[in-house]
Amino acid sequence: MTIELTARAAHVAGIRERAQAEMERLGVNAAFIDLLVETFYGRIRAHEHLGPVFEHRLAGRWPDHLAKMKSFWSSVAFKTGTYGGKPVQAHLGVEGVYEGLFAEWLTLFRATLDDIAPSEEAAQWFMATAERIARSLVLAMFYNPALDDPANRRLTLTQ
Ligand code: HEM
């Protein structure tokens, strides 16, 4: 048991070390994560479509949200395990979100990275990660298995 726990701790430490070395290679550090979150959500607030959706939910709670997002991105980038939230549940409760808004979110994220990322590789890493998470959020929020049912598809085709 103790040996298993020690082996697991060593495994986790190895993952963390590799993630940190990779981020260092890309030029990503904690100061960049802070800058990314501050800049991106500053632009979100000024965005015609994204701004009102975030504001409606986060009015008076922005500092908490920014702190949570910094913890989230640090956790994902450096594999620190410090973020313990539930993104799917958090988004299910956001009013006024539609599928196309995720494309706008990603476009704004890309533009922000183009302006401030320390390297193109860093921009690509953040973008690929955000796209993967956005895809899983979209599936959780909007996917309707009934639309994949061949019986239903036939129904729609013959209508
Ligand atoms: C149209 C796209 C999106 C909208 C409108 C949106 C909106 C929001 C809002 C309003 C919150 C705060 C929920 C609350 O505290 O009550 C939130 C939380 C969060 N969002 Fe998004 N979001 C979007 C896309 C994304 C994407 C693509 C990611 C990941 C790359 C993401 C990651 C998160 C995380 C980690 C939280 C914190 C969840 C928690 O632990 O409470 N969001 N989002």
Automatic annotation (TrEMBL):
Entries under InterPro entries matching the protein? Globin-like_sf, Globin/Proto
Q: Which domain of life is it from?
A: Bacteria
The protein depicted here goes by the name Hemoglobin
Q: Which GO terms describe its molecular function?
A: heme binding; oxygen binding
Q: What is the lineage of its organism?
A: Bacteria, Pseudomonadati, Pseudomonadota, Alphaproteobacteria, Hyphomicrobiales
